[in-house]
UniProtKB/TrEMBL annotation:
Annotated source species: Planobacterium oryzisoli
Superkingdom as given in the UniProt entry: Bacteria
UniProt keyword terms in alphabetical order: Receptor
Protein name, per record: TonB-dependent receptor
Length: 477
């Protein structure tokens, strides 16, 4: 069943489900009409599949069925899960499966808001499915968050309907290969029509699924620019944690995370909170890894990816995986959530890359356009010094050399405190280089353990991370 079947049209998918007499369930859609179930009605044979189709569009009536929500919000993950569980409960209570023991039940639901009248907000929504992958089994669940990109309500409705068909068909046909399932969600849908920025699998159909890897698939396949998950590995909706917050971000390869990374983060954050007069409670801390830092051999090494995330998780950090090769794109992303203040900690070598014009040849405005997007009003770079191992010189913003034609612009950013030095850094860490540490780990050389945060070296040894292999002496054999 795991092999991808020939690409079917939405009508063919809906018909295939309808003709399977062992698939039976309900549809509950709020906010954009009954766009998904419409495909099943039109395909023919719907009586074999559709137990009930409803749209509790009126808010009061919807509340009467599913209960009220905090702040009376309807387009939330909590609301979607209430809908799914309510409808599944009714199926189990009302249907006797003794005469059809091979039937597999499902409940599909969505709650969305489409583009507003002035087209200042394009809309978003939650889409989900609870289903039995085998008769009589406990229910499994797939939850998706989408952001609409099209500029017409009718187009968004049509796309939502196609996505729903793909989700239902994919769940019953590709449940044992979630990567194929995710890929199939965009069958007959262009990636510029809708964005999936969160997906979550749960239940007996997905016993070995790591949702962090599923999040990575979204970024790899261009379905979204970034995904976020907490230290427990739980997928987070970016809007829920970033909207109107202060954001302090640290980008790195974290292979592995070193005392330099932590010193940069801690000292930079200390300055950021002082500059913004903000509180830790209103500040979101993000450790960001770009997919370009995950490509060791031309493609993303998923095992290596999980190793890095596991180490950061052990330290209690929230991780973002993005496809932002340039810093300005990361800044734009955070700005899209109306963040208040943005601080980015980086090393000298990274700042030199920011001032390298070759990275902006694809922009019509070149490096000036990139700087306009990066050095926005409330953004500040916190620069960590770098000790050149060859010259032994300590590089800071004061002695950093940029191209001649960018010197005055660079001076402007320094004078206006858009780039500030982290001055209270720990000089004991100035000769810690992650590449040297990684080489020592893979070659079982001593001395690297003390250059990592507490507990990280033990974790690397216990789990054999980053190529570490324990050396066993002959006497132990």
């Amino acid at each position: 069943m795991s092999d991808i079947k020939p690409l079917l049209t939405p009508k063919q998918k809906a018909l295939a489900i309808n003709l399977d007499q062992n698939i039976y369930g309900t549809f509950a859609e709020i906010g954009a009409g009954q766009e998904t179930v419409r495909h099943f009605f039109r395909a023919g044979g719907a009586s074999n599949t559709i137990a009930k189709a409803m749209s509790a569009y009126d808010k009061d009536y919807s509340n009467a069925i599913y209960g009220t929500e905090e702040k009376n919000r309807f387009v939330t993950q909590v609301r979607l899960k209430k809908m799914l569980r309510h409808e599944i409960k009714l199926i189990d209570e009302r249907l006797d499966n003794s005469h059809s023991p091979n039937r597999r039940f499902f409940s599909y639901a969505n709650t969305v808001t489409t583009i507003n009248y002035h087209k200042t907000f394009k809309g978003h929504g939650w889409v989900g499915l609870m289903f039995q992958h085998r008769p009589g089994q406990a229910y499994s669940e797939i939850i998706i968050h989408v952001k609409f990109k099209e500029n017409e309500t009718s187009l968004q409705q049509e796309t939502l309907g196609l996505l729903g068909v793909n989700l239902i068909y994919g769940a019953f046909n590709y449940y044992d290969n979630p990567r194929n399932l995710i890929k199939s969600l965009y069958d007959d849908i262009a990636v510029d029509k809708i964005e999936i920025d969160m997906i979550h699998f749960e239940g007996p159909a997905f016993p070995y699924v790591d949702n962090r890897l599923m999040s990575l698939q979204l970024v790899k396949k261009g379905m979204t620019d970034a995904v976020v998950f907490n230290s427990e590995g739980k997928n987070m909706l970016p809007a829920d944690i970033l909207y109107k917050k202060d954001v302090f971000a640290v980008r790195g390869s974290f292979r592995p995370v070193t005392l330099v990374n932590i010193d940069m983060f801690e000292k930079g954050l200390e300055m950021f909170l002082k500059d913004t007069e903000g509180s830790p409670e209103d500040t979101v801390i993000i450790f960001e890894i770009t997919t370009f830092n995950l490509r060791a051999t031309g493609k993303i090494d998923e095992r290596d990816f999980l190793d890095r995330v596991d180490v950061l998780a052990k330290l209690g950090y929230t991780v973002m995986i993005s496809n932002f090769s340039e810093y300005y794109r990361m800044a734009e992303y955070f700005n899209s959530y109306n963040t208040r203040y943005l601080g980015i900690a980086m090393g000298v070598n990274n700042l030199l890359m920011v001032f390298d014009e070759q990275y902006y040849n694809h922009l019509s405005g070149g490096i000036l356009e990139a700087f306009g997007k990066f050095f926005r009003k409330d953004m500040r770079v916190y620069l960590y010094p770098y000790k050149d191992p060859d010259s032994n010189q300590l590089l800071t913003s004061k002695n950093l050399k940029v191209e001649e034609n960018l010197k005055e612009l660079y001076k402007y950013f320094i004078a206006n405190r858009r780039i500030v030095d982290i001055e209270n850094y720990n000089p004991d860490f100035s000769e810690i280089y992650s590449r040297e540490i990684l080489s020592k780990i893979t070659h079982q050389e001593p001395g690297w353990e003390t250059q990592l945060p507490e507990g990280v070296a033990e974790m690397i040894k216990e789990r054999g991370l980053f190529g570490y292999k324990e050396i066993i002496s002959i006497d132990e054999l």
